Amino acid sequence: MATTTRALALSLFLTGDPIRLELPVTSLRDLLAALGLEGLEKAGLLPLAPRVALLHSLTGATGSVTLRWVHLTHAPILIDGAGPVETVVVLTAPMCQSGSALRLVSRLRASLRDPAVVEGARSATSREGLVKILAAAEETAGESPLSGDEVLSLLGSGAAGLAAAEAERRLEQCGLNRIERVRRRPLALRFLEQFWSFFALLLWVGGGFALLAGMPQLGWAIFAVIVINGVFSFFQEYRAERAVEALQELLPQEITALRDGRELRVAASLLVPGDLVCLQEGDQVPADGQLLSAEGLRADQSALTGESHPVFKLPAVANERESVPFVERHELLFAGTAVVAGTGTALVFATGMATEIGAIARLTQAVVEEPSPLQREMVRVTRIVTLLAVSFGVGFFVLGVMTGVLPLAEGFLFALGVIVANVPEGLLPTLTLALALGVQRMARQRSLMKRLSAVETLGATTVICTDKTGTLTQNRMAARSVWATGRLLDVADLTGEEPEVRELFEAAALASQATLDHGDPTEVAILAAAVKAGVDPEKVRRAHDLLAPYPFDSFRKRMSLVRAAADRATAYVKGAPKETLALCDTIRWEGSTVALTDDIRRRILADHDRVAREGLRLLAVAVRPLPEALVGAVASAVERELTFLGLVALWDPPRPEVKEAVALCRRAGIRVVMITGDYGLTAQAIARQIGLPVEKVVTGEELERLSAESLQRLLAEPAVLFARTSPAHKLSIVRGLKALGEVVAVTGDGVNDAPALKAADIGVAMGKRGSDVAKEAAVMVITDDNFASIVGAVRQGRAIYANMGKFITYIFASNVPELVPFLALVFLGVPLPLTVMQILAVDLGTDLLPALALGAEPPEPGVMDRPPRPRTQRLLGPGRLLHAYGFLGVAEAALSLAAFFWTYWVAGWRPGLPMARTGVLYRRATTMTLAGIVATQVGNVFACRTDRESVFRVGLFSNRLVLLGIAAEMGILAILILVPPFPAVFGLAPLVFAEWQLLLLFPPAMLLLEEGRKYFVRRLA
Q1: What are the E-state strand segments in 59-205?
Q2: Other Cβ atoms within 10 Å of 989 Cβ, number
């Protein structure tokens, strides 16, 4: 797994042209004086390459890492036991960047191992010439491991650890060993932000106007709406950004350190570069460090890499591991990982934000959290509502005053009424509550949403980037077949009587330290198959003591354990087939060891590719009896001249429900991109089995070589699979897709997935195997780690967006019958049919629960049979406004005004006669208008349940919440009319039987009108 920080480029740190010293120098002091560097702290010399030395110094708290090239014409001997020095590389770095300095030294040593590079660098006369030579060398150089003594020298430490005074000085220079947080807005300010959104400001102004107009009840009611909604939204939306705190919790509180030659317990936050720490089983690693000694030490690095099995950690040996990725180096330990077995002593070289976990924290915090599509859409909705409300209010105010119909004071009151009538005060609480209900529904379907606004974003998802193991597959590895002596045998058919298979599985068990209950899933599966073949792994291991481990790494692609045997030590090797086969020169064939000919090699590779194309993962097993001199030698000396025993094919089957989920994504226009750390052939086979088209497989190594423009061109292709990738590659893919305008959901489980999860529109963490940091960085957690659950959540997200459109239509439709009474007052000269307080009763009382019921409407049939909605589609676009205002609203206004006039008609009024403007009759008439709006909204809530489909087809009573909402709506209306003190507050009076009879006709009238419109829309389509 690649580290989050890429290899350091030497050219970034080179400063100035090479210096040529003509003066003779015979010591370090002479060299420092000749260079004018007498003031360097703790300067030292180390051999870097033949005839090249490193002059190094960690120089305090400030400054930057720099390299300076110096050529010595007299080639003095400056280091005891080393040859003459013709080139000195001067490295200076602040103490807080000691980790980067050490990696730079490793990079330099690897780049200068070729004598031609050293000679070319010596001839360079300018910085540009030197950069050109080194840049070419470091393309394939990697980083050469440093010995323990070299790291001690570079860090100015020793076998007794740091002196207490020196540790205190370094603590002042480097700061505490902890994960720092970026400065964030105070909590109080974030709370107050809930109350000055554009929509909230509109309500504040409306409430203020109500107080000025002498309507304190209305003003305080509006203010209460703002406060209640703001508090609710804050507690729902506010998630403490715990990704960084979760990282901090990975660091221990105390650790055993060696200072002044004594072991003592110190707070982990007080550790500094150069400290020696003693680690044992159960300890959390407190900082990044290099092992100086170890006994059977294994570390769980899943917090950093996402790999679930512990890895061996050993002191540095030789320089043959230059191409091994940084976090896979066996001599290195990283902050936040855990020691699960053994003991060791490590030298700290990076603390706090300079550690790998710190780099992840910095990267995570650097990802700017953008507003969700819903948040952006609500800004647009608020602007439209404001424009409509203010335009209507000002327009009618000017018209009323200029025509002389209204005096100035009454005109102001009239304008306020118009504005209040057009502001849907219940929209914000309805939206918030509907999203909260959606979150609860999704939780019951194994999808936990941590941010309300993200629910809707799911419905807009155009790309899902998913890993393979455990998400598309069952994460249940099992051995399926075995290849030995040219035959492919099914594990299920093994009887324990096949000697060549038994020999293969004995070697495989000896090449592993897993048990049947614990360890890497691949190794556990092999052991289970070994038992099936008649092998007792523990019994075999007891007879073969472990002498030397050579842990797996992604560069060698194999692991080896050297064990004692009856006559001589034997290396048991298990690894990637092609790489392992290349190291073999013999093969076990029908009980004998024979030469591995080219024909047999081709046969093995052909069988390997055939099995791999079926989606199986293969491991090769080989052995080598070792001469005594090679026990404990470097891996390259041990892992050669091997005898090939055979192949084990393992199988992690796809989840049965994933194929249908992928097909559903394709029908829904959602692209699925597999990003896996596995081999391309295996991943491609799994993709084929689940119906995911793959035309091109791109590895992480190829990805790193692409420019940003090339990556975007690649991501625009429809059928690309990414294999052998790291979380850093995943972040690049996510950013590239977003740059193309895609709405991206991405899965992740490791700590170093946190940046990609946070950068995605929807970060999806795995609930079972995901780290706490990944879960905190994501906005969604899948509790069963199943891809099908993600697709189910997308379906719910689409339904929630559609439902928001439905209840927005429902809410806005009532604006017209709330507005028309004011127009009737001005232009018809009738008494005001509906008061401002009665408008508020509709918006915040009767409309709220039916609107919520619409928010809980189940997905319509075919919701996943159409592509994601276009980014240009608006929640409150012209079509919805025309439907709400021009059709439903006009119908409701006509019916409610008819109810108003009906009350006067029943009481004996006829056209041309004056209408009562006060008293019981007037209050009954306004009550009738209010009740008429409520009655039409009852029909409207049924009408709004579908966009185009007939509500009778989906079932008139299939959404029980709608029925409950209507019952609550009628109950609230009855309370407002009949229960004191509400009639007095809202200006209402009881209705007579004849008036109730008329109201009963309104719901079916509205429903049938809308059903007729839908019928014609379907016919036209």
Answers
A1: 66-72, 87-93
A2: 18
Contact 944, 908 (CB under 8 A): no
Region label for 306, one of left (φ > 0), alpha (ψ between -120 and 50) or beta (otherwise): left
Question: In whole numbers, what is the pLDDT of the chain averaged over residues?
Answer: 84
Give me the percent of the chain exceeding a pLDDT of 70. Answer: 88
Q: Is the peptide bond before 981 cis (omega within 30 degrees of 0)?
A: yes
Which structure tokens are listed for 479?
């051995």
Mean pLDDT, to the nearest integer, of 697-702? 87
User: What three-state secondary structure class fits 52?
Assistant: strand
Question: 191-220: per-residue pLDDT in tens?
Answer: 777 777 666 776 787 677 667 666 676 677
Burial class (CB in 10 A: 0-12, 13-18, 19+), 163: middle
Q: Of 275, 283, 288, 467, which residue is the catalytic one?
A: 467
Q: What is the Cα–Cα distance from 206 to 981, expressed in whole angstroms?
A: 24
**What would the mean pLDDT of 441-453 be, rounded to a whole number?**
77
Please give the Cα distance from 804 to 452 (Å, whole number). Answer: 13
- Do residues 102 and 148 touch, judged by C-beta distance below 8 A? no
The 10 Å Cβ neighbour count of residue 995 is: 19
Phi, psi of 275 (to 5 degrees): -70, 145
User: Of all residues in the chain, what percent carry a pLDDT higher than 90?
Assistant: 33
Residue 592 zone, left/alpha/beta (φ > 0; ψ -120 to 50; rest): beta
To which H or E segment does residue 244 belong?
Answer: helix 243-249
Write the single-letter amino acid at 241: E
C-beta separation of 300 from 337 below 8 A: yes
Answer positive or negative: Cα dihedral of 833, 839, 843, 849.
negative
Give every CB contact of residue 79 below 8 A, 6+ residues apart in sequence: 45, 46, 47, 53, 85
Judge whether 467 counts as a catalytic residue.
yes
Mean pLDDT of 741-768: 84
Strand, helix or coil for residue 342: strand
Non-local CB neighbours of 464 within 8 Å, separated by 6+ positions:
665, 670, 671, 672, 673, 744, 745, 746, 747, 787, 790, 791, 794
**Torsion sign over Cα 232, 236, 237, 243:** positive
Mean pLDDT on 261-282: 92
First vs last C-alpha separation in the chain: 53
> Cα 132 to the chain's mean position, in Å?
39
| 102-142 pLDDT per residue, tens | 999 988 998 898 889 999 998 888 999 999 998 888 877 77
Residue 4, pLDDT > 50, answer no
Per-residue model confidence (pLDDT) at position 1008: 95
- pLDDT of 473 above 90: no
Nearest to 346 by CA among 357, 335, 354, 356: 335
Any residues with CB less than 8 A from the CB of 414 and at least 6 apart, and which?
A: 396, 397, 400, 406, 822, 825, 826
pLDDT, position 1: 33
Give me the residues paired with residue 279 across strands. Answer: 344
In whole angstroms, give the CA distance from residue 681 to residue 674: 13
Long-range contacts of 495-504 (CB under 8 A, 24+ apart): 496/532, 496/533, 496/534, 497/534, 498/533, 499/591, 500/588, 500/590, 500/591, 500/646, 501/533, 501/646, 502/533, 502/534, 502/535, 503/588, 503/645, 504/621, 504/645, 504/646, 504/648
Return d(Cα 476, Cα 32) in angstroms, integer. Answer: 62
Distance CA(127)–CA(110), nearest Å, equals: 20
Q: Other C-beta atoms within 10 Å of 500: how many?
A: 18
- How do 487-490 and 478-484 pair as beta strands? antiparallel
Alpha helices in 914-959 (DSSP H): 919-943, 951-954
Tokens of 945: 């349940």
Overall average pLDDT of the 225-253 stretch: 58
Question: Residue 691 pLDDT > 80, yes or no?
Answer: yes
